[in-house]
UniProtKB/TrEMBL annotation:
It comes from the Bacteria. InterPro entries: MoCF_Sase_C (IPR005302), MOSC_domain (IPR052716), Pyrv_Knase-like_insert_dom_sf (IPR011037). This is MOSC domain-containing protein. Signal peptide: none annotated. GO terms for molecular function: catalytic activity; molybdenum ion binding; pyridoxal phosphate binding. It comes from Cryobacterium luteum.
Amino acid sequence: MTLDRPAGTVISVSRDDAHRFSKPVVSSIRLLAGIGVEGDSHAGATVQHRYAKKRNPAAPNLCQVHFMAAELFDDLVPTGYVVAPGELGENLTTRGINLMLLPLGTRLHLGAEAVVSITGMRSPCSLINGFQKGLMKQLIRTDASGTVARRGGIMGVVMTGGIVNPGDGIRVELPVGEHLPLDVV
């Protein structure tokens, strides 16, 4: 099922050519099919995250594009944390879609052409506490029943390339068949 009208909006786009924690906001990004964000340090057909590359450099890159919801940044303000787009290393900051509830294989249609297939959740890493002390606890929570809730955004691979700009609409295409929850990639 694809929503004909945009379900959400791209608020901001970011990329960085080096492996730094935060990514600078830019005016637009180009997504390359099977590669990721042109000019970004995580672009590539095989894994580019440094810790995963050490384990298996030939593994497919399931983390070509990182999405974060602006609603998370809103939720953090009352807890004393102020986070701006790109500061948690995401490529796209969105509004209007509960990213964490999307099933595996959901396709996000971005702007006029680009399509990204969702591969899983990002598991927030301890570097987040170096960015803002204690922030990690806000992004990984455990409820009374022991269920862990991650709020570090989602990852995907580029199926169809294209230019993505702030203000572009996001259409959601849910996968056919059983909807599987996202796991950490």
